[in-house]
Design brief:
By secondary structure, the chain is α+β, with helices and mostly antiparallel strands. The protein has 16 helices and 34 strands. The longest helix has 21 residues.
Length: 673
């Protein structure tokens, strides 16, 4: 640097001294003169400052010179911000020199102590005293150099749902003459997640700093998609599945990931997928869902046609589940007439086949009636519908034609229904909706054959055996249960032609209720209980039932409504039992089911429905039709037999009702002349 010229003119406040200008030329780095700065800050009013300078040097040959500047010192331009100087260097060791300069309000007085000659030696120090400045300290106190003490570094957690926090901090403490203190960012500002440096600045030009660190402790959110079920291509064992969760975070740029990743190949079965949302601070949130991969399954007949001999007992129809066997699958089936009829050629079947997990084939048996008519080959149809199960649909063979080949070669001379075993077998088919078990077949056949050739005994026994099928536990708790349940739930009384359960409805209901049930054999009671519970629950869950019975109803009111619907007056015990059954269950559906079963099985309902359902089953069982179907065309016949049965107190022998039906031309012509 250059040095300022000394012109022996002392600066004063009344006569402002002009900068005398720099002298000397450029010096090399090794010979550059040294300087030192001392800062003094004026107070809130302008002042005349007196600067007293004392040098402690071993030589008096113009060693150093003090020069005053306003705000800052520029060594490359010695006249920039120049205020004044003493006009020369101290000439006596330890003897001070003084000069005065004007300093504006809040201005910073910078005293530059400069070497006169480069590489000046022999000085052990100096002192600079300033008087006359207005200070922000106590009155009369000497102005000191500014010193700042910032707050300690601050660490906080983010505000809820914010990617940062509003942070306040105390005002930094200062000493000396600092002027106005400011902070950037200011206290009360919003600080983002991470570390921010706060800079403290004074009007004296002093600075300091501290840090504010905001930690993100709030985890992100994530919502997984619903469980996914997909199908493979035909015969494939895996497939690619894509998915996407949704997530959010208080800070942007969180990352969603999945294990297994979206777009992975999934094998058959169920796989749990974990979704994770991770933010930049390492906070995470997880959720799970499942991906189930099924092979497309089809249910169909193994063949579009089947054949059976008239004497073969039953047509064996194979129904296959193809393309996969995972999970439970069901399909409904129904027979329909062709040239063969359900009255005299085969036993009508309406029901549901259930495939257990892993099961691929079921056999549907359709009993065949071995009549004695000389017939051409006859056919009937069986149709599949309403498949259920994951990925289950109908295949191509959704219906099949069954051909019955006649086994008669000569015109009939007798009717097979007169044979005891044929008669009993047909009752199993007509009343219990199943083929006979050998023990039962032999027992009831013996009841008739024990008469020998006594026609009166045979006639009496045939009536008793026939009635026994209606009176049996197996019928009363399957077909009879369906009849009573419909009466209680929907006021469908057997005696009323417009509301009674229909022939086809009973066939379907009995198919469900009697499935797997042979009373007296192991497991029959448990199976019957499960069937009845499932049947009653389905009634309760039906839209018709839910429409009829309001949900907001007490147990007592619900039970009373059921008995009213059934058209009977219960005993106090029956009403209490039904209310107790309702209250014993944990859910409304199960409570209503329990009450419905209790009312349907009550003695009052059984008694009210006994004779009407007995007459109804004469038509359903023997004639295989509704009472109002042709050839009747009206309900007169039904009402006649109901009145007659009631007139004899329900005694089927004295009323001749059973005898009349089993000897009727319509019944006998189902099997022969």
């Amino acid at each position: 640097m250059s040095r300022l010229g000394r012109n022996a003119v002392i600066s004063g406040c009344n006569a402002v001294k002009a900068c005398p200008g720099a002298i000397d030329t450029v010096f090399t780095a090794s010979t550059t003169r040294k300087f030192h700065l001392e800062n003094f800050v004026n107070g809130p009013t302008a002042a005349c400052a007196t600067i007293t300078f004392t040098a402690n040097c071993s030589t008096t040959t113009n060693p150093v010179i003090p020069v005053a500047y306003l705000g800052s010192f520029d060594p490359s331009n010695l006249c920039t911000n120049y205020l004044g100087d003493p006009g020369g260097s101290p000439t006596t060791v330890g003897v001070p020199i003084s000069f005065a300069v004007n300093v504006p309000a809040n201005g910073t007085l910078v005293v530059s102590v400069q070497e006169v000659n480069h590489n000046q030696g022999g000085c052990s120090g100096y002192s600079v005293n300033v008087s006359g400045l207005t200070c922000n300290t106590d009155a009369g106190a000497e102005c000191q150099a500014c010193s700042i003490t910032p707050p300690a570094n601050i660490v906080v957690n983010n505000d809820p749902n914010q990617c940062g926090a509003v942070v306040t901090f105390p005002t930094p403490t200062t000493s000396g003459t600092c002027g106005v203190v400011s902070a950037s960012p200011a206290s009360g500002s919003f600080f983002p997640v991470g570390t921010t440096t706060v800079t403290i600045t004074t009007t004296a030009g002093n600075t300091s700093s501290f840090t504010v660190t905001v930690n993100d402790t709030q985890p992100p959110t994530i919502t997984c998609p619903a469980n996914i079920t997909v199908q493979t291509a035909p015969n494939a064992t895996s497939t690619i599945v894509t998915y996407a969760a949704t997530g959010s975070d208080n800070c942007p740029s969180s990352v969603l990931s999945y294990t297994p990743a979206s777009g992975s190949t999934f094998n058959l079965g169920t796989t749990t997928v974990t979704g994770k949302n991770t933010d930049a601070s390492g906070n995470t949130a997880t959720c799970t869902f499942t991906v189930t991969v099924n092979q497309p399954q089809t249910i169909e007949f193994s063949s579009p046609t089947f054949a059976v001999s008239e004497g073969g007992g039953a047509a064996q129809l194979i129904v296959n589940r193809q393309g996969g066997s995972a999970g439970t699958a069901t399909v409904d089936y129904a027979t329909s007439d062709g040239s063969a009829t359900q009255v005299g050629d085969y036993t009508i079947k309406l029901g549901t086949l259930t495939f257990a997990n892993g099961e691929t084939s079921k056999t549907l048996q359709i009993p065949i009636v071995d009549d004695v008519y000389l017939d051409d080959d006859e056919t009937f149809n069986v149709t599949l519908s309403n498949p259920t199960g994951a990925g289950v649909s109908l295949g191509s063979n959704t219906s099949t034609i069954v051909t019955i080949s006649d086994n008669d070669t000569t015109p009939p001379t007798s009717n097979p229904i007169d044979g005891a075993q044929f008669f009993v077998r047909q009752h199993y088919l007509d009343f219990l909706n199943r083929k006979p078990d050998l023990t039962g077949l032999n027992f009831w056949t013996n009841e008739i054959t024990s008469c020998g050739s006594d026609p009166s005994c045979i006639s009496f026994k045939r009536v008793n055996v026939s009635a026994a099928f209606f009176l049996s536990i197996e019928f009363q708790e399957t077909g009879g249960f369906a009849i009573r349940t419909h009466r209680v739930a929907f006021s469908r009384k057997s005696a009323e032609p417009l509301t009674r359960i229909t022939y086809l409805e009973l066939i379907r209901s009995q198919s469900q209720l009697a499935d797997g049930v042979i009373i007296g054999q192991p497991g029959a009671d448990a199976k019957l209980e499960a069937n009845n519970q499932a049947y009653a629950l389905a009634v309760v869950n039906s839209s018709a039932f839910q429409t009829k019975y309001a949900l907001a109803i007490t147990a007592a009111d619900f039970v009373d409504a059921l008995f009213t619907s059934a058209g009977v007056t219960p005993t106090s015990g029956e009403r209490s039992d039904a209310i107790t059954a309702f209250n014993s269950q944990g859910t409304l559906a199960l409570a209503r089911t329990a009450a419905l079963r209790s009312v349907s099985d009550s003695a009052s309902v059984r008694t009210a429905e006994f004779s009407p359902s007995f007459v109804l089953m004469e038509y359903f069982g023997y004639l295989r039709r509704n009472p109002t179907d042709p050839p009747d065309g009206n309900d007169n016949g039904y009402q006649f037999w109901l009145a007659k049965l009631n007139s004899f107190g329900g005694d089927f022998q004295k009323s001749d009702m059973v005898k009349a039906f089993i000897t009727s031309t319509e019944y006998r012509q189902r099997f022969g002349p």
